[in-house]
Automatic annotation (TrEMBL):
Membrane-crossing residue ranges in chain numbering: 39-65, 77-95, 155-180, 192-210, 249-267
Organism for this UniProt entry: Cellulomonas humilata
Family, per entry: Belongs to the ABC-2 integral membrane protein family.
Protein name in the entry: Transport permease protein
InterPro entries named in the record: ABC2_TM, ABC2_TM_bact-type, ABC_2_transport, Nod_factor_ABC_transporter
GO molecular function, one term: ABC-type transporter activity
Keywords: Antibiotic resistance, Cell membrane, Membrane, Transmembrane, Transmembrane helix, Transport
Length: 273
């Protein structure tokens, strides 16, 4: 009986030091801070993809016409890029909340020092911050999907599944974004995040099919997370649902797991060890 007690107690205390099951307090703090900030800043995340859709989908789309899908069907250019812009919006919102905001709280606001001085563990902080980013991203996604529906750009019933798909995408980017930010020391280093995001935005089949590239470049693009996000959301809104959807979902499940694990370990090393 004594042997069992001595072997299980350290494990329990270790788990308790990482996660106090109180991530909701971190989320509540984020929501309260949002209510006290300018509503214009919050709304800007919704209007950005809408402006892109109007400019590129309707403006440029009037010259391009229809786009042929891999299965041989053709769809309007606006319907082709709208789900991609939705995926990009999920990436941008999640990365912004989990990088710049987290960087300020970590190095200037000293917010995590105060949080981890309480009963909260590093996993509470990581999961709470990421959940807050998801709530904000979910509002943006619902609004943009509503715009797509009004414009007739959701071409299948499966478009209703685009909302949970976008939340999964945002969760993946937020998890990895927060993990990467924990290693950043200066604002200049944060520029590397934009350096990575911009090429993904331009080349991940956002504005044109991936088949325009040579084979080896297609392989590189298919390894990027935004391509999986674009293909997942686009397939749902256009009704092109097949087994490849599971691959895209699995990609982000792994991304979430790795991001949460690295973030938890890093926060523990920075503030508790």
């Amino acid at each position: 009986m004594t042997t069992t007690t001595t072997t299980t107690e350290p494990a329990r205390s270790t788990i308790g030091s990482l996660y106090a099951r109180n991530a909701r307090s971190v989320v509540a703090r984020g929501l309260k801070a949002t209510r006290s900030s300018s509503g214009i800043i919050v709304l800007s995340g919704f209007f950005e993809p809408v402006f892109f859709l109007l400019a590129m989908g309707l403006g440029l789309g009037s010259f391009i016409g229809d786009v042929e899908l891999p299965d041989g069907t053709s769809v309007p250019y606006a319907a082709f890029i709208a789900p991609a812009l939705l995926a990009v919006s999920a990436m941008n919102g999640a990365v912004y909340d989990s990088t710049w905001n987290v960087f300020f709280k970590m190095h200037f606001g000293k917010l995590y020092d105060a949080m981890l001085a309480t009963s909260l563990g590093p996993l509470d902080v990581a999961f709470g911050e990421i959940t807050y980013a998801l709530l904000r991203g979910g509002v943006y996604a619902f609004g943009f999907l509503t715009v797509m529906q009004v414009m007739g750009l959701n071409l299948a019933w499966s478009a209703a599944l685009a909302l949970p798909a976008v939340l999964l995408v945002a969760f993946g980017f937020a998890s990895v974004g927060m993990a990467v930010t924990s290693y950043m020391k200066t604002f200049q280093q944060m520029d590397w995040i934009n350096f990575v995001m911009l090429p993904m935005f331009l080349f991940s089949a956002t504005f044109y099919p991936i088949t325009v590239y040579p084979g080896w470049i297609q392989g590189v693009i298919k390894a990027l997370p935004l391509w999986h996000a674009v293909e997942l959301v686009r397939g749902l809104t256009l009704g092109v649902v097949d087994g490849s959807m599971l691959t895209h979902v699995a990609y982000f499940v792994v991304m979430i797991g790795l991001g949460l694990a690295f973030t938890t370990v890093r926060l523990k090393a920075l503030f508790l060890d």
